[in-house]
Amino acid sequence: MVRNPYLKKMKPLKVEAIPAGGMEIELLLEPSRLKEIAQERTLGFSPFGPLSVQGHLSKSGQNILLRGRIEGIIRLECGRCLETFLKTIDLPVGSEWRLVTTPPKTGGTEDGQRLEELETGLVKEGVLDLTDRILEEVILNIPIRPLCRESCLGLCPVCGGNRNTNPCNCTTGIKAGPFSVLKDLRVKS
Q: DSSP letter string over 133-177?
């Protein structure tokens, strides 16, 4: 992944700055900003470097559309061995926002729809911040149980050691539990 050294830091964009034909964007979500956000809420990953966003931003009536890609490297924790590992991400992103000029009354938008019914984000006061949408896309693409590799052996249930780095023979020394007698039980039919 080749990064353009001249990418701009991600900042909120004024909607009026988006030309009628749209505009190409190349933005960076800096690791320092990601760490600030991670202190406020759980992200499910930690940054290893910046996340870059490239794409096309366009305006159509009250709607703003973004089509592009998110690239970067994130740090995750393996769901089996609990070791951290790096994962390269390269995700398509497609988002839509709707301009809202007046605050919604009683849970509805200007055209009578309820906020919960909208599948788009809302732009208030003419400023569009891509940060939350980019993070949402990354978070949604993190597996529920990330694995450092498919063949990860995980932790030993007896000694707690990482079986990927320290193979052990603890499985032969497992003590009999209260239900161990059931393994020899034979059911007659």
A: HHHHHHHHTS-SS--SSTT---B-TTT--BTTTS---GGGGPPP-
Q: How far apart are CA 28 and CA 176, in angstroms?
A: 56
Count Cα atoms within 13 angstroms, Cβ side, for 32. Answer: 2
- Residue among 119, 91, 99 nearest 29 (CA): 91
The amino acid sitting at 170 is C
Residue with the bigger pLDDT between 147 and 169: it is 147
SS3 96: strand
Least confident among 23-37, 45-59, 90-104: 90-104
Length of the chain: 189
Q: Which of 88, 90, 76 is nearest to 144 (CA)?
A: 76
Alpha-carbon span 40 to 19, nearest angstrom: 34
pLDDT tens digits along 136-162: 888 889 999 999 999 999 998 888 899
Work out the burial of residue 26: count CB atoms within 10 Å of its CB; fewer than 13 is exposed, 13-18 middle, 19 or more buried: middle
pLDDT for 118: 44
